[in-house]
Give the backbone structure.
Amino acid sequence: KQWYQRRVAITAGIIKLADSSKEEKWVIQKYIEHPLLVHNTKFDIRQWFMVTDWNPLTLYFYQDSYLRFGSRPFTLDDFDPSIHLCNNSIQKKFLSGQGKNETSFAKGNMWTSAAFKKHLDKHGNLDKWDDLIYPGMKKAIQRVMMTIQDIIEDRKNSFELYGADFMVDSNYSPWLIEINCSPAMGGTTKVTERLCSEVLDDCIKVIIDKKEKSTDRDSALIPLL
């Protein structure tokens, strides 16, 4: 059995595990020992969603997401960060210099969700995305936000964009790892260069155009609640 510990970040009430003391807080999480692998490589999924009101709770779920890969084949015999920690802030350290460990199948160690669905379809598993992964991520985000909505200060005429990180196990079940407030939206790869720009544009479509009842622009942010 594998476990790991991580520091707790207290942001916007998403994780309320610390009091006002300055002592460092940690959370212990069960490690997913049998993750779904792509070309024998571990990945996680960054999924955006937006809250435009806490009372009543109003959520928008972004239709697209992206995968972040490790840069070495998965194994439990070696706990090097390049194998197990897929977030870009970690992996970019292994993607620079002459000895960079970029995966051969994913430029910048990232895929769009569309590329992932194409991979699943190639192996006869596209239904796993439609029936398990995608709705599972929706359900997890919806339940977490419903759980915390009463402890969040409700400020009208405001919004917040979040980045949820998921892992998928070998049974195609998504597991919510963490939710990030004010997620990084810089275009560090070709994937994020396009998607980050598009999601910010779609945020404006929702908070400005829909408020003014403009219907000439479609958004990939779809109502969840």
Q: What stands out?
A: The radius of gyration is 18 Å. The first strand starts at residue 3 and ends at 7.
